[in-house]
Amino acid sequence: MRRAVCPGSFDPVTNGHLDIIERASRLFDEVVVAVGVNASKNRMFTADERMEMLRESCAGWSNVSVDGFSGLLTTFCVEHDVHAIVKGLRAVSDFDYELQMAQMNASLTDIETVFVPTSPEYSFLASSLVKEVATFGGNVSRLVPDHVYARLTARLAEIAARA
Ligand code: PNS
Question: Which Pfam families does the record associate with it (predicted)?
Answer without folding.
Answer: CTP_transf_like (PF01467)
